[in-house]
Write a structure and sequence with these properties.
Layout (H helix, E strand, L loop, with lengths): L4 E2 L34 E6 L16 H11 L4 E3 L5 E3 L4 E8 L2 E7 L13 H12 L7 H4 L21 H4 L6 E3 L4 E5 L20 H9 L4 H13 L3 H13 L19 E7 L3 E6 L13 E6 L3 H9 L5 E2 L5 H8 L4 E16 L16 H13 L3 H9 L21 H8 L1 H5 L4 H11 L5 E7 L3 H16 L3 E7 L2 H4 L8 E7 L9 H4 L13 H11 L7 H14 L3 E14 L2 E2 L18 E2 L1
Parallel strand pairs: 2-11, 2-12, 14-15, 14-16
Antiparallel strand pairs: 1-16, 3-4, 5-6, 6-8, 7-8, 9-10, 10-11, 12-17, 13-16, 13-17, 18-19
Helix pairs in contact: 2-6, 5-6, 5-7, 10-14, 12-19, 18-19
Length: about 600
């Protein structure tokens, strides 16, 4: 199961990159040219620029910047459609549960699954993905050796640190059974896992093991390189694994087209051919791709611009064919007014919330008060009581979706199965349903804390976030808080460094509908636990949840988790972010969905009439 993806913008804002006069070599003129699109180009506005081909490292974990583009460049065993149903991709392979006790899952790789350099996709690629992302082979905790940005410097000797950690993969302890000339692989789980069908199956196919071994171990022959990867993990060879980890962590990070073509090897129908830093990135269809997800368009160009007004202007001018800008009332009106443009709107994959930092020496950290947890709790509760969530929804979201509601669950989407039970269990609507500055003042007085300073991090230039910040600031200052504007163009990069902020306003974007997705952001050792929240009971409950295969029994654990998070004043859910997609008339197949990669999930079905 993959972690959540950051969504510091509407659907995809993680950096303040603006278009300049620089344009793609294949750009200019009419977008989506080429008649029915078989030899044409489609241009998409994306708000965040690509920076890493390793979507699964702690630092590369951004769907909005990296995941969307990797989705075009890589094939997968399955994908989730607009109805949240898992669709198999048999031309890449199949995944099946072959045993319940112990839980065993078999991956069968299709003959048509190949890397773009001609190397067959094999067991080595899956073993590398499992070994790196599970954390099982690390000799040090990645969090403890990472810098403030979350990056891990190269390790020496036998120090193995893959900069990742997914609980869903860590429960696979044994080296897998491999057969059929490295075409089948069977993992045995140490314990049941509710969402086994999502492990290693969606969004991307990981990094190419033969390329990682080539860079790390100096082995040029792909077959020998793959064999070396398998041997390193099977033998737990710390010296070799340390080298593989160093390459896996940072060796595939780049912000412009690399000189080394090995870094561009993928399994999907598109390959990166142009990349101008901070401006645009172009993918070109592979003639040798043998999979079933064959797209109509020869080239896809992503332009980077986080300004929604600029996105609308680019769509109007024919510079792009599709935009998914931050949804505001003004932006919706602007898109609706465009000639020759169709629009769809609804709920996006993004769950908007505000989280508090628990271990940064700030106003919500017990260390600030000599370790007094009760005092820190009251300050957290006081701050949360100042947040007018209903006003945020009424003023910002309802103009886009008149059915929008305040989200009162950390784990469940409003209207989904079990949502009402979660709301009843956690007490959020009762405690924080209405902003109460007087109650907040009373809590601060009881804590003996005067004018606590709260630095709020959010993405600079994101209109909706700016509006939310102003509403939150106004409410908090009424209760005596001093609010510091932490608008940051690199908010996603700085989120892992909580010394920079006390409250963070951002969103999570899920890549599937699995029950265990929230685990990595709430458990003590979670890869996405930027707040440094830690509660033994929550850790245990998530463990119980992910071991529960019976979906009818999962709710009892989720309800207890919700209650504990609320009692600890972890933060507050705000709303399910609205989605807005504007696109050129004649472009067919666009179907937004509430899991990543959002409206791009079926790019292989798109056509231009």
């Amino acid at each position: 199961m993959k972690k959540h993806f950051l969504a510091l913008g509407a659907a995809a804002v993680t950096s303040a990159l603006l278009l300049s006069a620089c344009t793609p070599n294949n750009g200019g003129g009419e977008a989506a040219s080429g008649g029915g699109g078989n030899d044409g180009e489609i241009k998409i506005m994306q708000s965040a620029a690509f920076y890493s081909s390793n979507l699964n490292s702690t630092t590369g974990n951004s769907n909005s910047a990296n995941g969307t583009i990797k989705y075009f460049m890589d094939d997968t065993f399955s994908y989730t459609d607009s109805d949240l149903k898992v669709q198999p991709n048999k031309s890449f392979g199949t995944v099946e549960k072959v045993s319940d006790s112990p839980l065993k899952v078999k991956y069968s790789i299709a003959d048509t699954a190949k890397w773009s350099d001609g190397t067959p996709y094999s067991a080595a690629d899956l073993v590398l993905a499992w070994g790196a992302r599970s954390g099982n082979f690390n000799t040090k905790d990645a969090d403890k050796v990472a810098d403030k940005s979350g990056a891990v410097k190269a390790q020496k000797g036998e120090n193995v640190v893959f900069n990742a950690g997914e609980p869903s993969l860590s429960v696979i302890k044994k080296f897998p059974e491999i057969a059929d000339e490295n075409k089948t692989l069977t993992f045995e789980y140490a314990e049941p896992f509710a969402d086994w069908q999502f492990n290693l199956t969606q969004m991307d196919s990981g990094l190419p093991a033969h390329i990682v071994a080539k860079k790390a171990l100096g082995i040029d022959d792909p077959a020998k390189a793959n064999a070396a990867v398998l041997k390193a993990f099977k033998d737990d060879d710390k010296t070799a694994l340390a080298k593989l980890a160093n390459t896996w962590n940072t060796g595939f990070d780049f912000t412009k087209l690399p000189d080394d073509p090995d870094l561009l090897v993928g399994t999907g129908p598109y390959k990166m051919t142009e990349f101008q830093e901070g401006q645009f990135l172009t993918l070109t269809r592979r003639d040798d791709y043998e999979g079933e997800r064959k797209p109509a368009f020869k080239t896809v160009t992503f332009r980077f611009n986080q300004d929604p007004t600029a996105a609308v202007q680019a769509l109007q001018n024919g510079e792009v064919d599709l935009i998914n800008p931050t949804a505001t009332a003004d932006i919706r009106k602007s898109v609706e007014a465009l000639d020759g443009v169709d629009m769809q709107n609804g709920d996006s994959p993004v769950f908007e919330h505000i989280d508090l930092a628990f271990a940064n020496g700030g106003p919500f950290d017990p260390k600030t008060y000599g370790g007094d947890k009760a005092k820190a709790l009251k300050v957290r509760q006081a701050f949360l009581k100042t947040i007018p969530r209903q006003k945020i929804v009424d003023d910002i979201i309802k103009p886009l979706n008149d059915k929008a509601v305040v989200r009162d669950s950390y784990l469940k989407v409003p209207g989904s199965d079990g949502y009402d039970e979660m709301v009843a269990a956690n007490g959020l609507s009762k405690e924080y349903g209405t902003a109460d500055p007087e109650a907040a003042k009373k809590l601060l007085a009881e804590a003996g804390v005067s004018k606590p300073k709260v630095r709020i991090l959010y993405t600079k230039g994101n209109v909706r976030r700016e509006q939310q910040f102003q509403i939150i600031k106004e409410g908090a200052e009424k209760a005596g808080f001093e609010i510091v504007d932490g608008a940051d163009a690199q908010a996603s990069e700085h989120l892992a460094d909580s010394s920079r902020w006390d409250a963070a306003l951002f969103g999570w974007s899920a890549d599937n509908a699995g029950a265990t997705l929230p685990e990595t952001r709430h458990i003590t050792t979670g890869q996405d636990n930027y707040t440094k929240y830690s509660d033994p009971q929550v850790d245990k409950l998530f463990g119980d949840l992910h071991r529960t295969l019976d979906t009818s029994k999962q709710g009892q654990f989720e309800a207890k988790i919700e209650k504990q998070l609320a009692d600890d004043a972890y933060g507050l859910p705000l709303f399910q972010a609205p989605d807005l997609v504007g696109y050129k008339q004649g472009l067919t197949g666009i179907k937004p969905t509430t899991v990543a990669p959002g409206m791009l999930w079926n790019y292989f079905d798109w056509k231009m009439q």
